Amino acid sequence: MSAWHAAFIRGTSGIEKTRTLVEEPENWESCLAMKAERIKQLNDGLLRRTGVDFSRYRNQELVDTVANAVTFPVFFARSVSRSVGAFLLAMCAVIIAVKSNFYEAFLAFVGFPLALVNGVLLGIVLFVRRIRDDMSRVFEISAQLTLQVMSDIGAARSKLSGQGKSFPSLLEIFQGVNAIVVLPVVTGILRRRLPLLGGLAARIIEKFFGQVDTRLVAAIEARNKGEITTPAPASPAEVSEWLQSAARLIESGRGLLSGIIDKVAKVVAFPFLTLFAVVFAISLAILLLAFKMIV
What we know:
mainly alpha, single chain, elongated, 11 helices, 79% helix
C-alpha cells in the first residue's frame, strides 16, 4: 500500500489549513468533499513529487465523455419528483375525502411540507439504489484514464529520471485521477443540470464514490499482494512491466466492482431510509391525531 493511500484511509482528526494534503491528508471521503483549493493543493503536491499534472486531464473531452456516460441527474430528478408527487397526490386525496375546513387548513400548512420531506427522502433512497450502472461506467472511465496517465508517465521516464522524480504507484495514480479529475467533473455536471438539488445530489455521489474507491483499492491490494510495484524511471524494461501489471490489476478490479457497489449502495442508502421511516411514522401519527380531533 502506498504511503499516500495509507494516509487517506487512516485519516486524521481534522483539517489543518496550514498543511497540504500531500503532507498530512485527511481520510479519502473528506478529500472528496474538498473545495477547489484543496484539490489544487493535492494536485500541486503530486506534481512536485512525481512531475505529473493530473489537472490537465480534466478537459472538455473528458467532461463530454462523462456527461454521455452517466444519467445521475435524470435518475435523481425522476426519483425525487415522482416520490414527492406521489405524497402530494395522497395528501390532496385526503383533503378531498375529509370535509373539514380545520383539517384542510392543517394539511395545507403541515401536511404538504411533511409530504415534501417524505418524498425527497424516499426519492434519495430510490436514487442511491438505482445508480449501479452509472457508477460502474464512471469507474471504467477512471480506469481508462489511469492507464492513459501511466502511459504518459512511462513515455516521459527520461525526463522524470533527470529531475529526480519518483514513479507514483498504480493505486496512487488511480486515486489521484478520481479525486482531482473524475469526481469534480461528475459533481460539476450534477450541479449544472440540477440547479435546485444539484448540491445535495453531488454530496451523495461524493460519499458513494469515496466509499467505493476505498473498498475497491483495499480489495485490489488484498487480492494482488506483491504485484503492486513502483519501478525506477531509468529502466525501460521495468516501466514496460509496470504498465502491464497495471492493466492486470485494473482488470482484477473490474471483477470486484459490482459487488462493492451493491454493498456501498446499501450503506449509503441506510441513513436516508432510516430517516424516511422515522419522518413517515411521525407524519402519519400527526395526521391521524389531527383527524381524531375533528371526528
